[in-house]
Amino acid sequence: MSNTPNENNGVNDVYRDISAIFNIDERKAAGSPVEKTTDAPKKNERILTAPEGMKHLPRDERKKMKKDERREKRAVRLKKAKTRAIIVLSAALAVAVIAGVIRWKIVDAKKPVVAVTRAVVETLDRSYTDSAVISADGKTTVAVLIDNDYDVHFIAKNLRAEVVNAAGATVTGKVTDIKEEKPGADSFTWLASALLGELPEVPFYAVYITLDDPDGVLLGGEKATARIITETAENAVVIPAAAVFMDGAQPYVWIYHPFTKTLSRQDIAVGVSSDEQTEVLRGLDKGDRVISGSSVPSSELYEGVKVKLK
User: Fold this and answer.
1) Would you place residue 52 in the very low, low, confident or very high pLDDT band (cuts 50, 70, 90)?
2) Distance of CA 72 to the CA centre of its chain
3) Regarding predicted confidence, which is higher, 198 or 272?
4) Which of 21-35, 90-104, 113-127 has the lowest mean pLDDT?
5) How far is residue 127's CA from residue 75's CA, in Å, rounded to a whole number?
6) pLDDT of 24 over the 60 cut
7) CA of 226: how far to CAs of 52, 176, 200, 267, in Å?
8) Which DSSP string corresponds to 101-128?
9) Could you tell me the maximum CA-CA distance found in the chain, to the nearest angstrom?
10) Which terminus of the chain has a lower count of CB atoms within 10 Å, N or C?
């Protein structure tokens, strides 16, 4: 049974509706040839670049686009230049820092090492210390033998003295007599035998100390150590004896400056001195810092030399 015209029209209407919904090309569906589009570039056809494409733009817009493009290129070049400059400067700074550290290490290793002490105010005694022997009774007299005029020159009657025996017991007293003992005298023979262990052929000076109150602490014939106070300085500016240097007859010190870590020479006048301390009469004040020892001789120190502390 064949389709009637009315039936064909109905089918066509339905197909057109479906084609419209799914966007079906009726020519492709019917097998009819489809014309090629000209949107795609043909073979060997040159594609317009952006600058060539700008020919179709208004002149003002083309100028603006070129200006923006030049600005972007300059910004890129500037950024690259800045990056290179930062790299170069960073490398130079690192080299400078490393070189500085090495140079500081070398210089620091060559700095003299010093010990520093402060000048203080205190009472300082100058004394003469020597071996002594207790008299036979052990209660009254201690004798000291001195073999030179120089030491005797500083000793006089009524000077204070301290006597310490081997056990560490201390008894005070004062000088009551100074006599020249000559070989052959009984007193000289006894003293020389007790203190020297022999009989010298030259005279000695015997210094006699009368004890204040031995109270049986010291024994007759016992050997001891006598310290005679020859001079006392009250409220004296005192520094260690090792801090005093000599330039001929001129005593001087090296003053340490903590802020610059340098030294400067200061001439001084000295007063009372002991084996360990020296009184400074002029040239220093309380609290001044002076060096009391150095890793190099004083002759190698100089004004403004940089040092480091022990």
Assistant:
1) low
2) 54
3) 272
4) 21-35
5) 87
6) no
7) 117, 14, 21, 35
8) HHHHHHHHHHSPEEEEEE-EEEEEEEEE
9) 181
10) N
2, pLDDT greater than 90: no
User: From CA 133, how far away is CA 211, in angstroms rounded?
Assistant: 12
- Residue burial 45-79, b: 16+ Cβ < 10 Å; e: rest: eeeeeeeeebeeeeeeeeeeeeeeeeeeeeeeeee
* Structural element, H or E, at residue 194: helix 186-195
The 8-class DSSP code of residue 35 comes to P
Per cent of the chain over pLDDT 70 is 78
Q: What DSSP element (H or E) covers 96?
A: helix 59-110
Q: Give the per-residue pLDDT at 204.
A: 83
CA distance 187 to 181: 8
> 303, 265 in Cβ contact below 8 A?
yes
pLDDT band at 266 (very low <50, low <70, confident <90, very high): very high
Four-CA torsion 35, 38, 40, 43, nearest 10 degrees: 100
Is the CB of residue 191 less than 8 Å from the CB of residue 177?
no
